[in-house]
Amino acid sequence: MKENKFRAWDKKYKRMMYKDFYDRNWYTEPDGGKCIKSLHPEDVHDQDLMQYTGLKDKNGVEIYEGDISKNNRDFLYVITWHPSMCAFVQLQWGHTFSDVDFLDMRFNFHEIIGNIYENPELREREV
User: How many domains does the chain have?
Assistant: First the structure.
């Protein structure tokens, strides 16, 4: 069964927050950590919400929307939700939704190297 986990980028405080689907609190780490009491889960106007895909990369790192991955040929991808396909996809930098690759078990050739919020310098490496 897929785990329902979320993370959110807090635009005001410039930090990533994590929560389990059944928990009303946000935390500083994916598996708990410090509880952030100053933010309410329903108060999402200052946050970008991202869902866990249910998959892990070749190193066992959980893959969320907004993550940036690198394949064995050093191409960069961003993980995103494709609404018309109803699936998580990996979109290569500089490409459109017509060039997507489904996010599946072949992902074991990829490595999560950051995300679009905490690692903006990776955008400079666009292919």
Answer: 1
Domain that holds residue 98: 5-125
CATH of the domain at 106: 2.30.30.290
Q: Are 32 and 71 in contact (CB under 8 A)?
A: no
Q: How far apart are CA 18 and CA 82, in angstroms?
A: 22
Along the 127 residues of the chain, how does pLDDT read in single tens digits? 567 888 999 888 899 998 877 777 878 888 778 887 655 555 656 788 899 998 888 899 999 999 998 887 778 888 988 888 888 888 876 665 555 555 654 555 689 999 999 998 886 665 4
Cα–Cα dist 13/35, whole Å: 15
